[in-house]
């Protein structure tokens, strides 16, 4: 009798998230289960803790990882609450190791539904300023959500290590998605990132220009790899600075005194 690939993937995600939820029971994180019309999925919520609420951030992890991945995801979701941002890191659909990685292309609709459920969760808690931070495939899924939802309810997007996914079935046209995106976007990556991320950076800038998105900016961080290994604090600092500028609706220019050794803005 043939094995149902979808069932294998669901079981893999369930085992992953149940273990993750158990590990976080005694922490400051609220483990919540959201649904997309019959299917529950894990989300990790941390309320802002500095007394000055700036808004809420939905965090989308990379392909094959999870909502508390130790690189990028966990540092962002646990440190931004100290800066006035509540965070909601959601579990995206997983493909079991025994299945094909290109099958992540088939998770698009489900992922878009989960982002919508996360927005609903935050809206019910009276958040009006909602930002999405996506790493790698998570950033691509955020762009897909923005294309498909007319009532976007997202104020800005931070895309970390954004790359093309031509190998997916069906493939994703990242450049076309960028062209259609009109909200403020920070496209941030490292100069030691994956070759695809670095090589296509000029194409991503051109796509944003083609779409007349004057609120798109690109920042390359010197010394950073795809996972910002050992450079999480610099990543968070750059995100917070950009969010402050985006929130004040100022032109995206470099602050005076910006340390050029930390990164460089594309012109």
Topology (elements, then pairings):
Layout: H1 5-23, E1 30-35, E2 40-46, E3 55-60, H2 73-79, E4 85-90, H3 108-124, E5 130-135, H4 137-148, E6 156-160, H5 174-180, E7 185-192, H6 195-199, H7 201-210, E8 216-225, H8 232-247, E9 264-265
Parallel strand pairs: 3-4, 3-5, 5-6, 6-7, 7-8
Antiparallel strand pairs: 1-2, 2-4, 8-9
Helix pairs in contact: 3-4, 4-5, 5-7
Please describe what this structure looks like:
By secondary structure, the chain is an alpha/beta fold. It has one domain (5-248): Rossmann fold. It is 35% helix and 21% strand. It has eight helices and nine strands. Strands 1-2-4-3-5-6-7-8-9 form a nine-stranded mixed β-sheet, with helices on both faces. Strand 3, helix 2 and strand 4 form a beta-alpha-beta unit. The radius of gyration is 18 Å and the shape is globular.
Element-level helix/strand string: HEEEHEHEHEHEHHEHE
- Main sheet strand line-up: 1-2-4-3-5-6-7-8-9
Radius of gyration: 18 Å
The rough form would be described as: globular
- Total number of strands: 9
CATH class categorisation: Alpha Beta
Level of helix content?
Answer: 25-40%
Number of domains: 1
The CATH homologous superfamily corresponds to Alpha/Beta hydrolase fold, catalytic domain
Question: What's the CATH topology label?
Answer: Rossmann fold
CATH architecture: 3-Layer(aba) Sandwich
Strand count, sense and closure of the main sheet? 9 strands, mixed
